[in-house]
Amino acid sequence: MKGKETILLVAAGLLGLTPPMWAGDVAEPGGYRMNDYRAPVPQTLRGASVVMTAEAEALWREKKAVFFDVMPNTRKPANLPAGTIWRDTIRKDIPGSTWLANVGYGAISEETANYFRQGLAAEAGADKSRAILFYCMTNCWMSWNAAKRAVEWGYSSVIWYPPGADGWERANLPLEEKKPYVISN
Fold first, then answer.
1. Do 60 and 96 form a contact (C-beta atoms < 8 A)?
2. To 10 degrees, what angle do helices 110-124 and 141-152 make?
3. CATH code of the domain occupying 34-77+88-178
4. What are the residue ranges spanned by the domains of the chain?
5. What mean pLDDT is predicted for residues 20-40?
């Protein structure tokens, strides 16, 4: 029965249950995307596998990859006037994912790079051949940048899921509320 389910999932993806992400041919850049992060993305990422929703769902159901959301999170400004109400961002993620906020920018600080490395190690372990999947939203370069960075850091089973959490939701798959990952001391 598993084979039939997989075929049905792939067929659903081919029939348009996922939106077109590739409006024309977007060339894969040699470096990181540095601005305009919400824009059409390339169809490829050198050194990584690219999956659509059916394949991502199979990896998720079979627990064959560690999932990372890299959507940015707006931090509470340090200089807010006393008494100002601040509401943290609520993110809906693929269940079981880890939200590594702000690691998908083209240029990241050493502090953010350390947070990214520590989050990867804490959730995926020391084995750099373990499958790790990155996503954010449809037409979002943040996950492309994060996956590229993981490849450059020596991870050999990097998976990029371009449809992101909104593509997952369009396929009527479950989401759960998450807060950004916090490094334990």
1. yes
2. 80
3. 3.40.250.10
4. 34-77+88-178
5. 86
